[in-house]
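Example record

One chain of 255 residues, shown exactly as stored in the release files.
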Amino acid sequence: MAKPLMAKATAVWLVDNTTISFKQIADFVGMHELEIQGIADGEVAAGVKGFDPMANNQLTQDEIDRAQANPLHKLKLKFNPAAAGEEKRRGPRYTPLSKRQDRPNSILWLVKFHPELSDGQIAKLVGTTKPTIQSIRERTHWNISSMQPIDPVALGLCRQSELDAVVQKAAAKKAAEGGVMSDDERRKLVSTEQSLEMDAEPKIPSAIEGLETFTLGGGLNDDDRKKEEEIPDADSFFNLPAGGDDEEDDEDPRF
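Predicted structure tokens for this chain:
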């Protein structure tokens, strides 16, 4: 439901100039009923000048009369064509000055771990411009050598739900195109919760690659057993002359 301009000042005017209930005023301006009661008691919005909703084309007298006659009636904001689409502003997201220095690091993170995202999607997520994104993609940014990829959610530049929504949209587009995705690409194109729930695919360590069929006994066929039986014993490798244990070397006749 659309809310009136200057909601607190409008609530002050309605409290001072009408007999509409606190609940009706709270629902109309988007405040809590206790806040409206605080305005009536002078504890809230002290010094705030009332904002006339009728003079500013937000309410009609008939609407106020119906609300005063029926405590269950909900005030309806008068339609103003000039205010249509005012809540949906176009353009990049506003980034506080304290976080703007971290924005290139978040762009580098998105470019590195989610290359499927378009420049427009990244611009909306972290509030930047397409030339900046392009310079980071091409590594021509003036500070590229000292930049570190940092998750924009950790930096507070966007919410996790927003990032997941953009990633899921990219995943749907990838699936519609019919492209075959690897395991790494599949994990990048899903939300964080889905990625954490996936079972890791077992991989053979590089140190034992090629030994997948190696067994310790019990796996020999008949040919292998015959070859094993034909292997000579250790003594056969040494062609030593046969002789008794009591034979002694011939003595030198000169002695």
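Notes: Residues 120 and 130 are 7 Å apart (CA to CA).
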